[in-house]
Fold this protein.
Amino acid sequence: MKKNIVLIGNSSWSILKFRSGLIKRFIMLNYNVIVIAPLDEHTLDIKKLGCEYNNIRIDKKGTNPVNDLILIFQLRSIYKRLKPIFVIHYSIKPNIYGTIAAYLANIKSYAVVTGLGYTFINENITSKITRILYKLAFKVPEKVFFLSEDDKSTFILKNLVREDKVVMIPGEGINTDLFNSVDQENQQKGSKIKFLLIARMLFDKGVREYVEASDILKVEFPEVEFGLLGYLDVENPTAVSKKQMKEWELNNNIVFYGSSDNVKFFIQDSDCIVLPSYREGLSMTLMEGASMKKPLVASNVSGCRELIDDGINGYLCRKKDTKDLANKMRAMLNLSDERRKNMGLLGRAKMVEQFDEEIVINKYLSIINIE
């Protein structure tokens, strides 16, 4: 019989979006892959990858200790039944409670810290409890993977994980074959230049600063389009409301496209990808944009700065600084078409050399030590 491998995350969408390549590799190596995640519209696509699926409810933002305790014992029961050779946990609650459950079930586990999240980085009682739980849980996994040097340093500095357990990986990896721009002249002389911000619509992603920067630039560049693409009104304390987005669409210079599973189409149709985020794990949307030969503008923060060589494949701006963001977007507008194209080519080369999905998958396999 094939041996079982379990991956668990807080949404089917995130498993499909970020870990499809890893799942396919495990299957190709003749393992039976089982995904545990809450049911959503992407669950069927997970099954189409060739793996099994187990539904579980995870209250991502809930702080009820009874619910979290129930989650631990639900996962312990599932792990004991499935008997996987190991479990890989993604996102905060699976990392904490799933890791504890795997320990109680005597199952080997790995944790992947994809970002610190709103709960962790704010100074309140919830964040303090979260850190205590991380410290407890991270005593037991075989290894803890980090996407960001800053996140790794934070965990080590706060004594939440032993340094000998830590492994760095270059993000979730980008499929540079899939995200490859069609070779064509994207800009015709006199045509509209398009900026695009792709993210969940959160204020922490710098959406407000982007809207305000568009107001500044529209005076000088009335023909420029400023687009937003991503989920709106999501479950997050910093979520942009539908009402706010409607106001921006009516009173500002924003085109909101909603959400889409065909991100490639929107990237191809844009000229520059913008992400003035306050903090990232390692931004997938910036990697996708760069892989499709688009220049970037993003905040000089963890999770963004690793992907941009300032002035080479894009520009870095100061965090929460609308004027500086507008200045960097203006600098992009003032470049010749040829210079923007060259920035995009250099960004593509950076993704292929440093962040390709195969690099990440091979790192997983070398650390986990399976063939």
